[in-house]
Amino acid sequence: MLEDKFNLTLCETYGLSELSVVSMSTLANHKLGTVGKSICDLKVIDDGGKEVTQGEIGEAVFKVPWVMKEYYKAPDLTAQVLKDGWFHTGDLVRMDEDGYLEYVEKKSFIIVTSSGLKISPWEVEEVLLRHPGVAEAAYVGVK
After folding, report:
1. Using one digit for the tens of pLDDT, what is the confidence trace for 3-38?
2. d(Cα 87, Cα 24) in Å, to the nearest integer?
3. SS3 20
4. Which residue range or ranges hold the AMP-dependent synthetase/ligase domain (predicted)?
5. Is-above-0.85 flag for pTM?
6. Number of helical H runs and strand E runs in the chain
């Protein structure tokens, strides 16, 4: 719609203030629903730090020369995200067979039940939206 109206092509990128842009789509190479392909070293890992298989959801960790040095006066927080030169984003992603990255959500949004079951808010949204009496659904964090 915007592309037609303004005669332009939209490309998606993914980045963080600590890293800047780390993945992007190009005019010639983009896939809807993704944030493009990584432009630097990327691993998608599970909670134990092991790389997941292609198509599985895991945390995106990047190694880039332009990563931030530290959080100001927050060495503990810095140590949580910078490990062996890899920046742990806290973002859950999935990489497809072509290397395109799909952003899923923040790892901190995951709901852990009393039995240890992990539920994603977007999964709850999807279930709600399948009900014929629900037109729209959104999750909002409440403490």
Report:
1. 788 988 777 889 999 999 999 988 778 888 899 999
2. 18
3. strand
4. 4-72
5. no
6. 3, 10
